[in-house]
């Protein structure tokens, strides 16, 4: 997918300091990397991604540098040399020889007299060079800038008075530190969702994306079961429609779109457009009915600013009509969802105009007419299809109270739909989980509120808006769970393997997951294990087999601890009792019981 | 073939026969079941095929055609007599088979089969009757609930791990994924979902899609024969044929080509005991001997042409999954020698949380789920006062306070609990707290990630340079463009400084000048 850097795409440059910089590669322009130098953009266009380049020394009279691809062997030379040295200790006893630098700089530390001998094929530095360089001298070296900073680093190390006191490891660390500061290299990386997430977290304002780390983003994608699901033959069932509430500037939508295969336009999609007049008349391709994201936003326009890195701009539909998102991303506001009649665009039909009158319009007016018509039709289609429900999943990353979102969105989900709600802090999810606690659900089943009972049809009941005791109908979600994940990065170097010393703090990030279910009509009795009274249950017909006998069911071993046939009569009262007792107890002691 | 879509990818609105569905009993207890109209295995139930659970029995006929997510009541099924007897016979027969009896083995088997099949051929599958209690929920399969319910064959790659791995190795619709060490198949299912972009033969059938879509595929390898067979059957049963191709092979020995063809992989996941032995096969061109170590099977043999299993036009992302740090070190060492870049190692920790209400207080006696300590100083004080009062009364008047134990009713019988739930609304009492669940997976494996960029030859570079001509900005040019006075001065100053430096450089030979040609001369 990301094979070559195409002109005008956004790419990410990783500098030696590990900072990331996102730039647009415009042909015939200059890319400036600040203190590291600058180079013409044409030098990286249609070159592969993931390569590391070195800015060569500027030729006399030139303002910008040429680039050189640094082969992987050179990048790893230091470490490989170190490894080899560790494998074949050929030094004499008491001598600690460490090679730090496949770029030819080799250190030989002699413990006895504390003298440092350095050998290099690039330059030799005599004893008089064992001086600390002054600020001016360093500045001058930087200006000279030979060997992409490698000379400078070598000199800095040579001039370090305390070098002989350093251990091998601190020496390596010192070199790394200087490398990060002075080496003139960069790596070119594609801007995709993982990269964008890292960039937002580390370089930009992490709170703008709700501090959504990569691992949490990946977890959201899995638990919401978002995947490519364009129907082979459009059966009208509309499989694979996801409902999304995204307040991360489009990052969540981008991550889901990436999983659905609708984020990256193929190069042919970005071919130049027809003339403007033509595009007015050109009917938009119909909105997709499967493999879609329906995005509910709180402002008049959705904030999807991060999608610009994927060549999609939702505010200017004419700029990207062939982008897959323009047919698969369906934005609508809460107003359009809950009170469409109050929304002007939705509720004002566009008067049809006869072709003759249309011809008489000036080009500008005709354009406006087409634009209005398209906008109205689009919103009408989106709102109507959203209200029809049947969504395969719901994904939320929002500042809003999840309870208020779920109240309006659960009825739109079909049975078996997956729900994934991300929150930077756990408190909103704790409150939400409590609404689905076992005891609250039991209470709801035992005596549903009158406002709920007065509703007759299952449809009406699924729309029930909740009350004080039951803010949401607790029987509509199954398997509610809250989890979190975090990665820990390690440094793996010969003899120096350990987790990295510092990491970003901030919000931990939590994920609430659940499955939408369809409760059976009427009362349903739970059946549970009732250890205390089980021994008293005597066989009704005398041939009861011992409980807890393992039965094999479809390859899986299942414990059959209640024999329905023989115990059925006795069970009803007793296990109900057990179930409720245990249901309450279950919270604390984890006793095995079915949750109703 | 194309008509049999996978329930993992297209669940449809209702459950249907011959497709996998998940019978959900309770949290972390789910039974995957392929729904059958009729009992082909002949387990002897009058209702046809039946799922037996601790919460009751569920004939498949009551589960087919239901909207997903439906709550289903248990049915009255006679598991006692017929069900068990047949099972017993099964076991007995197996035992007999294992005895090497030679001549009378064949007739005996026939006898048994006849015995077992007679009752079912005559038997009508009866109507089911709902039981008074017990229920399950019927859910569509997803890689997540499959992972938590699949039959374990090896250590399973769990959801947090595979989510992150697939995200990092850029597994997206249309990707060719190599998975080596399929194991229990949880990663196989998750990666199939990630790579899926249509069934073979479906390209362009969807009216609007005129352009050909690249179809993603999972190239799976498993060296254990039984596991391979089981996974092969699962893939068929789950309708994932054409999306997952599983090969029985030890990739460290045999490499990754399938029928001599390259899978053209873009994303690779290695869950092997020694991933470094498989790495030399995953090169763009024949790897150097030095990088392969002592592995005799590494592809350094010059007699056969080397075919790379990788896609030559995209960068390749890899992840290896190893529990031990020593494995990681060896893997990374080989990755470095083979030219992989951006090597990173991480571990992932996951926690699930228990959320409940903590009720503290002495007011309600011995009710369950209640921490029996005073909730506040006031409550403690009131209690102390009460005790003090009782003592006083006893010592002064010799009065024994009558125990009011008899008045106390067991607060844990059903009526009381229902009352506390419905009337007192105990579900709203207490403080809402969260804590990590009792058991935490503190270590699954270390994840090593790396990227292999596209090979870029000098010829490629020359072509690119021809197409995208580079015009270097020259200092003078700039001077003409924005020749402001200040700038000029600065330039002049810089130039002077450079000249001074040059003079100095001439003295110190080692430092070289800022003229690259000069450096080169010195080096040669």
From TrEMBL, chain A:
InterPro entries per the UniProt record, alphabetical: TRM6 (IPR017423)
Subcellular location: Nucleus
The entry's keywords: Initiation factor, Nucleus, Protein biosynthesis, tRNA processing
Pfam families listed in its UniProt record: Gcd10p
GO biological process, any: tRNA methylation
Cellular compartments per GO CC: nucleus; tRNA (m1A) methyltransferase complex
GO terms assigned for molecular function: translation initiation factor activity
Family recorded in the similarity comment: Belongs to the TRM6/GCD10 family.
Name recorded for this polypeptide: tRNA (adenine(58)-N(1))-methyltransferase non-catalytic subunit TRM6
TrEMBL record, chain B:
Residue intervals of the tRNA (adenine(58)-N(1))-methyltransferase catalytic subunit TRM61 C-terminal domain: 134-284, 317-451
Location (main, coarse): nucleus
Protein's name according to its UniProt entry: tRNA (adenine(58)-N(1))-methyltransferase catalytic subunit TRM61
InterPro entries to which the protein is assigned, alphabetical: SAM-dependent_MTases_sf (IPR029063), TRM61_C (IPR049470), tRNA_MeTrfase_Gcd14 (IPR014816)
GO molecular function, one term: tRNA (adenine(58)-N1)-methyltransferase activity
Coiled coil location: none
Chain's role: Catalytic subunit of tRNA (adenine-N(1)-)-methyltransferase, which catalyzes the formation of N(1)-methyladenine at position 58 (m1A58) in initiator methionyl-tRNA.
PANTHER family the record matches: TRNA (ADENINE(58)-N(1))-METHYLTRANSFERASE (PTHR12133), TRNA (ADENINE(58)-N(1))-METHYLTRANSFERASE CATALYTIC SUBUNIT TRMT61A (PTHR12133:SF2)
Biological processes per GO annotation: tRNA methylation
Keywords associated with the record: Methyltransferase, Nucleus, S-adenosyl-L-methionine, Transferase, tRNA processing
Superkingdom of origin: Eukaryota
UniProt region (Disordered), positions on chain: 74-127, 501-524
Species name: Phialocephala subalpina
Quaternary structure, from the entry: Heterotetramer; composed of two copies of TRM6 and two copies of TRM61.
UniProt-annotated location(s): Nucleus
Enzyme nomenclature, EC number: 2.1.1.220
Gene Ontology CC terms, in alphabetical order: nucleus; tRNA (m1A) methyltransferase complex
């Amino acid at each position: 997918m990301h094979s070559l850097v195409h002109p005008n795409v956004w790419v990410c440059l990783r500098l030696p300091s590990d900072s990331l910089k996102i730039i647009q590669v415009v042909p015939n322009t200059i890319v400036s990397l600040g203190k590291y130098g600058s180079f013409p953009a044409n030098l990286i266009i249609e070159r592969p991604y993931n390569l590391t380049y070195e800015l060569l020394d500027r030729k006399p009279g030139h303002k910008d540098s040429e680039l050189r691809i640094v082969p992987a062997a050179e990048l790893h030379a230091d470490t490989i040399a170190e490894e080899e040295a560790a494998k074949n200790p050929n030094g004499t006893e008491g001598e600690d020889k460490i090679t730090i630098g496949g770029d030819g700089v080799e250190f030989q530390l002699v413990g006895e007299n504390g003298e440092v001998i350095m050998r290099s094929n690039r330059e030799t530095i005599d004893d008089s060079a064992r001086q600390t360089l002054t600020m001016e001298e360093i500045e001058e070296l930087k200006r000279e800038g030979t060997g992409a900073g490698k000379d400078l680093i070598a000199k800095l190390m040579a001039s370090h008075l305390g070098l002989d006191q350093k251990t091998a490891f601190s020496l390596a660390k010192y070199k790394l530190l200087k490398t990060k500061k002075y080496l003139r290299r960069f790596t070119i990386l594609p801007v995709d969702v993982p990269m964008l997430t890292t960039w937002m977290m580390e370089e930009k304002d992490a709170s703008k994306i709700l501090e959504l780390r990569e691992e949490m983003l990946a977890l959201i994608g899995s638990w919401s079961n978002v995947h490519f699901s364009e129907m082979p033959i459009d059966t009208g069932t509309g499989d694979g429609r996801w409902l999304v509430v995204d307040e991360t500037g489009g990052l969540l939508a981008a991550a889901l779109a990436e999983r659905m295969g609708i984020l990256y336009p193929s190069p042919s999609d970005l071919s130049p457009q027809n003339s403007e007049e033509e595009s007015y008349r050109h009917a938009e391709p119909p909105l997709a009915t499967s493999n879609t994201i329906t995005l509910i936003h709180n402002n008049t326009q959705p904030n999807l600013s991060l999608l610009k890195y994927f060549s999609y701009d939702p505010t200017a539909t004419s700029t990207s009509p062939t982008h897959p998102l323009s047919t698969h991303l369906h934005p609508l506001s809460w107003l359009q969802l809950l009170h469409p009649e109050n929304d002007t665009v939705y509720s004002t039909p566009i008067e049809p105009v006869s072709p003759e009158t249309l011809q008489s319009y000036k080009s500008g007016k005709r354009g406006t007419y087409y634009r209005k018509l398209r906008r109205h039709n689009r919103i009408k289609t989106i709102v109507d299809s959203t209200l029809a429900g049947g969504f395969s999943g719901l994904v939320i990353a929002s500042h809003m109270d999840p309870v208020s979102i779920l109240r309006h969105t659960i009825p739109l989900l079909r049975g078996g739909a997956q729900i994934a709600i991300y929150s930077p802090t756990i408190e909103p999810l704790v409150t939400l989980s409590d609404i689905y606690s076992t005891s609250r659900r039991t209470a709801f089943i035992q005596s549903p509120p009158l406002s709920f009972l007065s509703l007759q049809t299952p449809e009406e009941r699924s729309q029930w808006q909740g009350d004080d005791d039951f803010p949401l109908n607790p029987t509509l979600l199954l398997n509610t769970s809250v989890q979190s994940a975090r990665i820990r990065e390690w440094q793996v170097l010969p003899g120096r393997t350990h987790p990295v010393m510092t990491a970003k703090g901030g919000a931990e990030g939590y994920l609430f997951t659940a499955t939408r279910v369809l409760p059976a009509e009427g009362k349903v009795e739970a059946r549970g294990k009732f250890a205390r009274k089980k021994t008293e249950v005597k066989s009704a017909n005398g041939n009861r087999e011992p409980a807890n006998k393992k039965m094999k069911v479809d390859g899986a071993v299942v414990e059959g601890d209640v024999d329905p046939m023989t115990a059925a009569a006795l069970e009803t009262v007793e296990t109900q009792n057990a179930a409720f007792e245990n249901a309450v107890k279950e919270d604390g002691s984890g006793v095995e019981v079915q949750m109703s | 073939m194309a008509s049999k879509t996978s329930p993992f990818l297209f669940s449809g609105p209702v459950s249907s026969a011959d497709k996998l569905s998940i019978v959900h009993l309770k949290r972390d207890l789910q039974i995957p079941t392929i729904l059958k109209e009729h009992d082909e295995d002949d387990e002897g139930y009058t209702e046809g095929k039946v799922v037996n659970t601790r919460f009751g029995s569920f004939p498949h006929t009551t589960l087919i055609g239901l909207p997903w997510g439906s709550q289903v009541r248990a049915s009255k099924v006679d598991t006692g007599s017929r069900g068990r007897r047949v099972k017993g016979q099964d076991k007995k027969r197996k035992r007999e088979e294992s005895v090497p009896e030679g001549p009378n083995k064949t007739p005996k088997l026939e006898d048994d089969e006849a015995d077992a099949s007679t009752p079912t051929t005559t038997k009508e599958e009866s109507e089911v009757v709902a039981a008074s209690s017990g229920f399950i929920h019927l859910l569509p399969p997803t890689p997540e609930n499959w992972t938590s319910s699949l039959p374990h064959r090896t250590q399973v790659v769990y959801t947090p791990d595979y989510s992150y791995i697939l995200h990092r190795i850029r597994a997206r619709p249309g990707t060719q994924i190599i998975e080596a060490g399929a194991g229990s198949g949880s990663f196989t299912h998750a990666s199939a979902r990630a790579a899926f972009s249509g069934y073979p033969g479906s390209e362009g059938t969807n009216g609007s899609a005129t352009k050909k879509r690249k179809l993603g595929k999972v190239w799976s390898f498993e060296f254990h024969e039984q596991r391979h067979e089981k996974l092969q059957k699962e893939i068929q049963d789950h309708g994932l044929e054409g999306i997952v191709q599983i090969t029985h092979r030890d990739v460290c020995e045999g490499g990754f080509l399938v029928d001599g063809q390259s899978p053209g992989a873009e994303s690779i996941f290695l869950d092997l005991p020694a991933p470094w032995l498989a790495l030399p096969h995953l090169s763009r061109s024949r790897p150097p001997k030095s990088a392969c170590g002592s592995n005799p099977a590494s592809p350094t043999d010059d007699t056969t042409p080397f075919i790379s299993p990788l896609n030559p036009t995209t960068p390749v992302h890899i992840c290896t999954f190893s529990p031990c740090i020593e494995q990681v070190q060896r893997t990374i060492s080989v990755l470095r020698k083979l030219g992989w870049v951006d090597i990173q190692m991480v571990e992932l920790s996951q926690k699930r949380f228990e959320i409940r209400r903590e009720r503290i207080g002495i007011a309600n006696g011995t009710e369950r789920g209640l921490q029996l300590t005073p909730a506040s100083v006031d409550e403690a004080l009131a209690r102390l006062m009460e005790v003090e009062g009782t003592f006083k009364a006893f010592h002064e008047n010799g009065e024994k306070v009558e125990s009011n134990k008899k008045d106390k009713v067991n607060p844990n019988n059903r009526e009381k609990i229902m009352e506390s739930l419905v009337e007192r609304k105990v579900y709203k009492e207490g403080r809402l707290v969260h804590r990590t669940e009792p058991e935490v997976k503190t270590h699954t494996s270390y994840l090593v990630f790396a990227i292999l960029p596209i090979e870029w030859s000098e010829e490629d570079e020359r072509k690119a340079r021809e197409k995208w001509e580079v015009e270097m900005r020259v200092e003078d040019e700039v001077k003409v463009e924005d020749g402001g006075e200040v700038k000029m001065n600065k330039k002049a100053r810089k130039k002077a400084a450079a000249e001074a430096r040059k003079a100095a450089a001439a003295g110190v030979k080692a430092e070289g000048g800022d003229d690259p040609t000069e450096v080169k001369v010195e080096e040669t």
